[in-house]
Amino acid sequence: MTSLCHIALSHDSGRKVPVAELGGSHGLTAASAKMYDRFFGLQSVLRQNSDQTHMLGSVLQKAVASLPDQGQTPGVLVYCKTQTHNTQSDQNWLRRLADAAGLAHWEVHALSMTSCASALVCLHFIQSCGTTAPVIVLTGEKAFHPSVARLTVGLLAEVPVAAVLNGGPGSWRVRATDVRHLPRFHINPEAMDAQDRSALQEVYAPELTRFIAGFLEQHAAALDPELVFVPHNLNRPLTDALIREFGWEEQHHAGDVTQIGHAYCSDPFLNLDAFVQSRRPAQQVLLLAAGTGVTFATCLLERSTVPETV
């Protein structure tokens, strides 16, 4: 069974930029800034001063240091991202990043086709493969341009995270995962024709609700009645509706949408770390992520009996 051993973050990096100051990076006007605050509770977005290589390299080094043998055992590094054009892939950017962290003998891969759901999709793949080799899931992106820094239902943040799987005793075990695609809506909403955009708005919430309900039904025997729901930092009105639908008013842990924003693929790990820091005693958490495309992904984690290190 796949174990989650460590989440590496840079807690002291970055700056929370008020929404009113995001005109250049996120293409906001004074009116749209007020709209994001009013409807989605967004007051600031976390941005990093360093470039993408340094931003990701800092958490990758921490992840490698957490491994019992500091990465000597061969493993796999997977960079999960939303943007398809944000790295110099033609210059072996990811390979060089891994080599600089002492992982020259590790395989490297990137996953972007499932957008912001990619980190949980990666966990689903790893769990399905049944591999016991160490894996580092790297997430976090620079918001290079307003076209990829602003969504209709949220604003994108720059938060690097490196999650270590199967790297020694784990604090969490992956009990179950699931992924669902709605292939009709593979085009970004801004580029859809009016008919598809209208259809997406009509089916998105019901399909997401059905996806979660199906997961809960399929894994009912393994569920702890006191599990805690940990959603992504996106579309707070819809998230609130899901919480009400499943009666999780007292059984959820929301990320800091107000001050951080939506951190691309980093949301699940960022919010899980915040849940751990809260010291709530729940034995299970249900992570949720969604990506344009459309992809829904979920992961049920259960605490291990080893001392907590995540």
From TrEMBL:
Keywords: Plasmid, Transferase. InterPro entries: ACP_syn_III_C, Thiolase-like. It comes from Tritonibacter mobilis F1926. The keyword Cell cycle does not apply. This is Beta-ketoacyl-[acyl-carrier-protein] synthase III C-terminal domain-containing protein. One of its GO terms (molecular function) is acyltransferase activity. Residues 228-302 form the Beta-ketoacyl-[acyl-carrier-protein] synthase III C-terminal domain. Coiled coil: none annotated. Gene3D superfamilies: 3.40.47.10. The keyword Nucleotide-binding does not apply.
